[in-house]
Amino acid sequence: MQKIFSDFIHHFRSKARGFPDKRTGKNTSITMEDIVLSAFSVFHMQSPSFLQFQNNMLKKEGKSNAKTLFGIEKIPSDNHIRDILDNIDPSYLQPLYDRGLKYLKDAGMLERYRYMNRYPVALDGTQYYSSEKICCTKCLSREYNNTTHYLHQAVTPILVSPHYKEIIPLAPEFIRNSDGKKKQDCEINASKRWIKKKRSLSLPLLFLGDDLYAHEPFCRDIINKQDSFVFVAKEESHKIMYEHISFIENTATLESFTQIVGKAHKKEIWDYRYINDVPINGSKDALRVNWVEVKVSDAATHKKRYS
Asked: Any idea of the CA torsion for 245, 247, 251, 253, to the nearest 10 degrees?
């Protein structure tokens, strides 16, 4: 693992060296690679203040892991990092996601995430910027209480496993308007772009997501890429599908089974009901999907925990 990490950091530094640098003159005493690696190390160290963390370690241990782990010669301030990196397009980081996955695959670590012969990828959107005053041409906008809020958002796919708490972040797809475009971009459109590209993944994927993703065009996009999906489908947004299920339930018995999960006082009852080949909506040629309901309750009290 240490060799994989060292090779990745070496590759990271070589790529960061080519990032565009707006600085001129004496203001370039800190190299671009030190700035980029410093930003990366904030997340690696899980510290809210990178500079304070490194200064404290330097005083206590006599050395800084910014140097030993990342090869950073000079530690920039948080503000300097933001000032320089805010001007760099995120696309410069794409090769690093590709290389990171290659390292994990070569080390045999990616294989542990295979589940049902596919690799589960959870899709979700996140907001990372909001302002009532500062905006750019790519900003989204929302009206709250008669005030316009300018937003930056992204879809952040992650590779997950039911057996491991560690996740593998994949390259994000930004939810942002194109210059001069009046229609707002949205999470579902960004996810469609991500699936179309599938980035560098040449793996059979199993997409996971909330009710937002459980609509026919998006599901067909996934199927056309020879991938699969498991999405939440709420009754209020899938009325025709649930009417179909209710009709079958009133005329026959749905397939079901129960299992006990957990140990000792932490046992839970998992009740499953399922039916195959139901229409996702009321259109004539509606996509046929498989529906599963899971209800989880406490084994001792039988009180429902979630469903």
From this structure: 10
Which H helix or E strand runs over 44? Answer: helix 32-45
Quote the pLDDT of residue 48. 63
How far, CA to CA in Å, does 285 sit from each of 192, 216, 288?
A: 21, 11, 9
Closest CA to 171 of 227, 90, 94: 94
Query: Would residue 257 be called left, alpha or beta, if left means φ above 0 and alpha means ψ between -120 and 50 degrees?
Result: beta
**Beta-carbon neighbour count of residue 102 at 10 Å?**
14
CA distance 123 to 212: 10
> How confident is the prediction for the chain on average, in pLDDT?
87
Average pLDDT (115-134) is 94
- Quick check: helix, strand or coil at residue 292? strand
Q: What does residue 299 show for φ and ψ, rounded to 5 degrees?
A: -65, -30
Closest by Cα among 174, 197, 178 to 187 = 174
Average pLDDT over residues 26-36: 86
Nearest alpha-carbon partner for 36 in 24, 50, 46? 50
Query: CA 166 to CA 267: how far, in whole Å?
Result: 24
- Candidates 301, 279, 298, 300; CA nearest to 288 is 279
Please state whether 114 falls in left (phi above 0), alpha (psi between -120 and 50) or beta.
Answer: beta
Residue 123 pLDDT > 60: yes
* Tens of pLDDT, residues 276-296: 999 999 999 999 999 999 999
Residue 212 CB contacts under 8 Å (≥ 6 apart), including other chains: 187, 188
What are the tens digits of pLDDT across the range 191-227?
999 998 875 578 899 999 999 999 999 999 999 999 9
185: which 2 tokens? 């971009």
Question: In 3-state terms, what secondary structure has residue 3?
Answer: helix
